[in-house]
Amino acid sequence: MTGAEHEKEYTPPGWQARDTVMRLAFGQMSTQVLGVAVRLGVFDRVGGGEGTADGLARALGTHPGATLRLLRALAGLGLLAETAPGAFVTTAAGDLLRSGTPGTLLSLARMFTDPSMQRGWEFLDQAVRTGETTFETAFGTDFFGHLKEHPELSAEFNVAMGQATLVAAEALPGHHDFGRYGTIVDVGGGDGTLLAAILRAHPGPRGVIYDTAEGLAQAPARLAAQGLTDRVTLTVGDFFASAPAGGDLYLLKSVIHDWTDEQCVTILRHIRTVIPDSGTLMIVEPVLPAVVDAGTTPLAYLSDLNMLVNVGGRERTADDFAALCTEAGFALDAVSPLPQPNVFHVVEAKPV
C-alpha cells in the first residue's frame, strides 16, 4: 500500500465525535449565513439558471469579494453549487428558498433566522436556570404581543407556519376518516393550510377556522385559492376565553406546544364545554419518546427549547398529553405518528 493510499483510508480515532462538536460549534454561523442570504434574496436572484458573484453583487448592491465569499459558504452548506469559478446554481435545497417554487420554505427560513426568533436564544442560559421564557428579556413584551405590534412580521409568521404545515397537510387527510364529520373546527388554524388539505380530500365536511384577527389575516386568500371559501367560516376569537360551538371534530395543530400546562388545560376545557359527547379532539404535534432515541432527529428537541425561550410552552410526551386531556375532561384514545419525514403525531381524545 502506498503512503497516499494509506493516508486516504486512514480515519483518525475520534474523528466523527470531533466533527460533531465542530459542526455544532459553527452552527450559529450557518444560521447567520442562511439568514443573510434569504434577506438579500440570493436564491431568487440566481433563479433557475446560473448567477455569477459579480452579477449578483451588482444586482444586490453588495461588495463583490464579500458576495463571492457568501456564495461559496452557501455552496459549502449545500444550498448552491459552484459550476465554475464565481458561477453558481441553486441545489434542490436552495430551490426551496426561492419564492416561486412548490413547497417553498422561504418564509420559514426568513422567520426562524429573524432577530425576533434568534434574540431570545442569546439568553438560553437564563431560561435554563429559571425555566422562564426569555423573549421578554430581549424585546420587553411576549412573542405574540410582539407580532401584533409588527403586522409585516405577523404576516411572515403566518406564511411560515403554513409552510411548516405542508408536509403534515399532505399526510394527515389520508391518516384519518375525516369524511365522517359534519363540521371540523380548526382551533388556532391560521391561514387554513391544514384544514384546506383535509377539506379538499374529503368533500363532505364543512370547516371553521378559529383564531385571532392577526392569525386569520392570510386565510381568505388561501381559501379562495383552494376554492374553499364557501365551505369554511372564519371566526375571530380567543381560545383562552372560549371555543366556537357546532363542531364534531376539534383540531389543534402546533397550538398546544406554545403554552404552559395550565394554559393548555384552559384551551382544552373551553373545547370540552362545546364539543358533543360523540365528538373527537385531535391534537397534531411532535410527541417526544420517554427516552431520547439514539440517532433521532434533534428537531423536536430544538423546538422544545425554542418554546422555552420564545413563547413559554414545550413539546410533550404521550403521558404529558394524556395528563392534559384528563384534566380537561377528555380521555386519550390513540397516539399515532404521521409517515416520515413528518415529526408530527396525531393525538386523539374523546370527551368523558
TrEMBL record:
One annotated GO biological process: methylation
Chain ranges of the O-methyltransferase dimerisation domain: 22-97
Domain O-methyltransferase C-terminal: 121-331
Highest taxon of source: Bacteria
One Pfam family here: Methyltransf_2
PANTHER family: O-METHYLTRANSFERASE CICE, PUTATIVE (AFU_ORTHOLOGUE AFUA_4G14580)-RELATED
The name this protein goes by in its record: Methyltransferase
Organism per entry: Streptomyces stramineus
